[in-house]
Amino acid sequence: MLGIYADRRGRKAALLMVIALMTVAIAMIAFAPTYAAIGVAAPFIIVIARLLQGFSAGGEFASATAFLTESAPAQRRGLYGSWQMVGQGLAVLIGAVLGTLLTRWLTPQALDGWGWRIPFLFGLIIGPLGLYIRRNLDETSAFLQSRRSSAGQQSSGSILASHVREMLACLGMVVSGTISFYVILIYIPTFARTQLHLPLDQAFLAQSIGLACEIVLIPIFGWVSDLIGRKPVMIAALVLDLAVTYPLFSWVSASPSFGALLTMQIILCSLFGVFNGPISTALAEQFPTRVRSTALAISYNIAVMLFGGFAQFFVTWLIQATGTPIAPAYYLMFGAAVGLLAALFLRERARDAQFLIADGVEPTAA
Question: 362 CB contacts (<8 Å, ≥6 apart)?
Answer without folding.
Answer: 74, 353, 354, 356
